[in-house]
Design goal:
By secondary structure, this protein is mainly α. It contains 4 helices and 2 strands; from the N terminus they run αααβαβ. The longest helix has 17 residues.
Length: 144
Amino acid sequence: MDVRCLGIKDSAFKFNIPIDEFEDLVSYMNGEVIDYNMAHNIIYGAEAFAESCGFKPHKDWGVGQFILEEDDDRIPIINIEFGENGVPAYYVGPHDTAAMINSVLSTLDKHVGIGNYFFYKDEVEDDDLFSDNGFDTTPDREGI
């Protein structure tokens, strides 16, 4: 889940598991239990924000979404900020390839406009990724 730009990047689900298995899964993920309404708002909000940036949710979300209630008026809206101050922010991940990075940046250029998003590549230690292998390093890519 990416609340800053990409939305639902992956989707996994388990149905009808015993509570101890659920607790083990939460512990393994180093996660914490949050209120259902908060989780619902984060997931659907991130999906909507990402869609406004041109990104579709992970294909498995088509099934995983049925674990949640529909996104309608029965769920109280919680004000959650997506992006950074409402602006999409793409953080390059350690497994992102040059092709993936270019695809994300092209999608952002098309849907929100060049320079209308933040782009962070500092987390990647592989300097070769940003050299002569096809990655576009134009100044416009550095963020707004």
